[in-house]
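worker-03 picked up job from queue 'complexes'. Input manifest follows; two sequence lines, order preserved.
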Amino acid sequence: MTYLLATGWTGDGKDGLASGDGRQQWWWLAADDETGDRRWVFIPSPFDLLRKRQYCQNLVVTAKMPVRMVESPAPASSSGANPGQTSLQPCSLLSVGQTFSGTQNVSSPQKEEAWRVNVRIQGCDLNHGYVCGTMEALNVPMADTPVVTFWEGEIVDTKNYTFFTNKWKATSEVDIDHWTKFPSFSPLLSQVEVDGGKSLDLSNYQYIFMRWKEQYFVNVGADCGLTIAGFYYVCFSCVDGSINGYYYDPNSSPFQKLELKTTNEGRSGFSFSSYELQ
Amino acid sequence: MPGSASSIHCPEGLIERLRSAAENGGEAKLKVLRELKNQIIGNRTKKLSYINLGALPFVVSILSSASSSSSSSDSLLVQCAATIGSFACGVDSGVKAVLDAGAFPHLMNLLSHSNEKIVDAGARALKMIYQSKVAPKYDFFQEKEMDILISLLDKNNEYLTGLGASIITHSCETKDEQKILGDAGILKKLVDLLEGTTSQRDAYMESFATIIKGNPQVILKSVGPENGRMWGNLLELTKDRYSRTRLLACMCLILIKNAVPSYLQSVGVRTKLISILLELIDDSGQVGDETLFTLSSFIENEEGLQKLAFEVNTIEKLCDHMQKELLQPKRLEGIFMVLANLCSNLESCRSVLLQSPKLQAINIITDGLSHTTVDVRVAACICLKNISRSVKYLSAGQFMTEAVIIPLIQLLYDSSTSVQVAALCAISNLVVDFTMHKSLFVQSGCVKRLVELSKSTDLSVRLNAVWALRNLMFLVDSRCKEGIFLELRALTLTSLMSDPSACVQEQALGLICNLVNGSVDSIEYVFAENGFLLSAIGRQLWSASKPEILIQGMYVFCNVASGKEFHKEAVMHQILPGSSNDDNQSIMVTMLQSNDARLRTAAVWTIINLTIPTGPGALARVVKLKNAGIVSQLRNMANDSCLDVKLRVRTALGQSLTFGNFST
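worker-03 finished. Artifact:
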């Protein structure tokens, strides 16, 4: 029986590593449990993970590529929790005090509409896969002032949370429909379809996937005519801090898009602040 | 002697007869002692009165001559011991008087008498003495004394074994004393003694607890998980019909678990212990009070136990208790401490308290801030501090209300330093408040007091005051910021940054970092008053003793470098070699080469800010950074093991490449 232990990738070509054509390429470390043989195997189409096992049985011996080895403690297992998984690494753009602004598309078949939105991160606990903050919606027609809500986020780190929501009326089909709208999710799709992504190691992935659920209104009453019944599927880019999201609420128009970028409050560069709770 | 009935029984008369008996001897001794004993038994006032009249020296004198004479009656010795014991029972000044009168060695001698009744009487009297904290300290390091102790525990006599246990409970204080008792096999003897049905079980458990408290070594050496009898005995005793016995058994088990957690892993047993303790809280006396502290120490530091306690509705039960009228201070303190430990990690616990109807629970805790007893005030502060670890409720502005803030600010002027420190810790969480209510705090005039306390000679006060200021400064609006800075001033910030304590330095730099965050104008604060603040930070980075100081300091530079051209140039001046030190290497290179990813991250962000291509001076800065070896250092980091560092390095390199390629 052959197991896939880890994924890795070569550089993007600029570093002079061996990929040649400058593309990111996926490699899999395959191990044969009978012989103990371990080899890196190139899979030309990372989307085709369902056939990976079959592919591996036709192993081609390749020279070991200077790839970045992604740590994976055990053979890929499709059941149970992952106590050996590590949390995601901190990303300085997803830290307390960071602000983002952009738009939330709230179009319905009747009319086109978009609100300006500001988001601020207020809490971040990677060990528990937790993040929280506020969302401020401006130019909301039914409100005189900007509407501020407090949201809490689940970080998909495959340790605390997987890609399957398992609540908020979101089935796994709904989950997959939304996650696949993010290009950076494509390489992960096949594995997610199998087990929700439980066996994936995302600790070195350049995108962070989250679900954001608004919990309460901060500055208006709950009777303001706005709803916070749904939640957002969110994709955060560690590279530039850009955020894309899709709102899901069975009672609202589907796929209302959230697009945010980091803001610098008129500065020429990035600024950081922090607090420490006792 | 003939006399009127009243004069025979009046105190002075009795004393006179006692004196005469002591001097002359005879039948009268026994009679007068009996009368004296009957007078004082159970009567504190009479005990004190006879002590003042000088009864004790006479009694001791009778005891002394009876001990040395072979012809004296056994009942006389018994009466002497009983009388002395009675004086000592429950009255500290009685114990002192007994000791001052020289009774102790005589009583000890009675222990080796052949008549069992005399031995018992002596042991009982000594036990009374050892119940009091003014009893003489027993020296376990003296071989002879240890031998006596061991022989007491080996006897088949409850009064003697009980005495041995009392001596240990009284005198065993230090870890060395615990060790020597453990090494002498005392724990095993106590465990054996616990097996029998005996009235002294409580005494044995108390001494057992005294020896093992806070000392994992002793437990590991003497008591093992394989010691089934011990566990069996203690677990049985948790079901005893006497509440004090149940409590002591729980205490022993919990002390073992606190020292060696692996010895008590079973969820079933842990849940049972919590349930037993919850029942014991209903006891309205000292047992109930001590139960609360025992429960508190059980769940402290262990999230799993807090969760178990939460699941058996501990919070609801405690809230019910809290609402009873006229709670004694000890009880209230105990309840607050259990709630504090429950809320130390679990959001679920905090939610329950914050969502209780009409905020009753929070109101009672807030009332505790103004309690007359110091310990209650401290416990209330700790409780609030732990509840306010909830970012969710801080974001709702839940805590920034006058009902909570005003009494807390009052405590900053409390006469007790420990109350001031506890209040500062609670305030430092509350001021993280994300809503606009920080202004409520600033307007209360409290900032001035925080700044005063930040100059205290007491390290705890100083550190927590600066901590509170740092958290207050986080994301605060410009107007409040101005108000805070007016009190703080650059001079205070500079001296805080070079505080003797590294922890204070770290918080001070965190405070400055938050100060210069926000709108671009905020950066001007570090240039206030001749701008020496920035160079002070530069110097600090070279002499920093812990990485957290370096991180905060570098982020100050990072934040300043995100400002205008003038700001970026000022940072360049600080980080390039030759500016503040003789070193040839830039502080940046040192940080970029650090093993600590957080330091590398902070340094790269600063470089990103300095080389933002849109700035007119960017090219010149890139050249200078290249000349200082910083750009080539960055190239070495293009595949840094930390993802965050790697991404920032690529951004920084990308920016510097905008100005054309460099040949290395």
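worker-03 released lock.
The two ends of chain B are 119 Å apart (CA to CA).
Confidence is low (pLDDT under 50) at residues 3-7 of chain B.
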